[in-house]
Structure to design on (141 residues):
């Protein structure tokens, strides 16, 4: 029996630490979202997150987040397809930004949706480390 590939997608804050791989395999991807213009620098977005439509629109229309995510998709797809072919069990994909609130949350959600759409046999787990510490309800993926 083949165990499906489990992919953990996380957002985190670089003010803390890069998430650990709990599978024991070590490694995975860590993408730095700090090169994308931070919506948190603008008063109207400070209390919002990467799931709020105003922030999503800002990131999609006023930053290079879409270009960044296209690159991420190309890179992770190579590993996902290889891991499926080789019956690997686990892959880590992490997105970090300064506070773990806007850019990394948006990117993690976008990539989780991409994986679910393009690789339906894969189990995707999403964790927003900083936001969940604030008792944020996570979306099911």
């Amino acid at each position: 029996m083949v165990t499906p590939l489990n992919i953990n997608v996380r957002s985190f804050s670089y003010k803390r630490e890069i998430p650990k791989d709990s599978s024991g395999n070590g490694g995975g991807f860590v993408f730095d979202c700090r090169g994308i213009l931070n919506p948190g620098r603008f008063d109207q977005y400070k209390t919002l997150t990467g799931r709020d439509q105003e922030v999503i629109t800002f990131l999609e229309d006023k930053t290079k987040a879409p270009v960044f995510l296209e690159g991420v998709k190309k890179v992770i797809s190579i590993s996902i397809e290889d891991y499926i072919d080789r019956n690997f069990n686990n892959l880590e994909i992490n997105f970090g930004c300064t506070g773990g609130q806007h850019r990394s949350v948006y990117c993690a959600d976008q990539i989780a949706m991409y994986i679910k759409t393009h690789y339906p046999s894969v189990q995707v787990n999403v964790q927003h480390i900083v936001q969940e510490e604030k008792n944020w309800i996570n979306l099911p993926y």
In short: The beta strands are 6-13, 29-32, 90-97, 123-128. The helical segments are 53-62, 65-85, 103-118, 129-133. The first helix runs from residue 53 to 62.
